[in-house]
Amino acid sequence: MAKKSKGSNTISKVWEIVEPLAKQLGLEIWDIRFVKEGANHYLRIFIDKEGGVGIDDCVDLSHAIDKPLDDADPIDCSYCLEVSSTGIERELTRPEHFESRIGEPIKIKLIRAVDNQREFCGKLKSFLDGRITIVMDNSEEASFDKKDTSWVKLDDFDSFST
What we know:
Distance between the termini: 40 Å
Number of domains: 2
Strand content: 35-45%
Mean pLDDT: 90
Number of strands: 8
Largest sheet: 5 strands, antiparallel
CATH architecture of the largest domain: 2-Layer Sandwich
Strand order of the largest sheet: 7-6-5-4-8
CATH superfamily of the largest domain: RimP-like superfamily, N-terminal
Structural class: alpha+beta
Low-confidence stretches: 1-7
CATH topology of the largest domain: GMP Synthetase, Chain A, domain 3
CATH class of the largest domain: Alpha Beta
Shape: elongated
Radius of gyration: 17 Å
Oligomer: single chain
């Protein structure tokens, strides 16, 4: 069954095409986004795998999906295809992202400030029914609705800087 990102039919169709090919290469599809920036459209496919993703993984998947995407033609306009790793500080967008990262440090940026603060950091305690609960450094808990966030990212930058 295809996984959807924000209910997008285009994303769902692309996911159905790309996921089996990624699995054959030992890759996991982390997220797929179809966005318009300026006059251009971009199909961005973010991949992950145990041990990390290298440039060869991105190239291999790009080559593997190019013809099947062209044949299926799920996008009715020209676009640039980008395949990349999730990188550090990857964005958590789907329920399974949150569920698999319980106990890990995350950063949350809200659309609107709460008590004059828009960014919060803490360990992810739970994700239930679209509600994110974190435990902050001062041991206080804070909860936010996913729909009220600009983004939620893993806070793993420090682990790569030493």
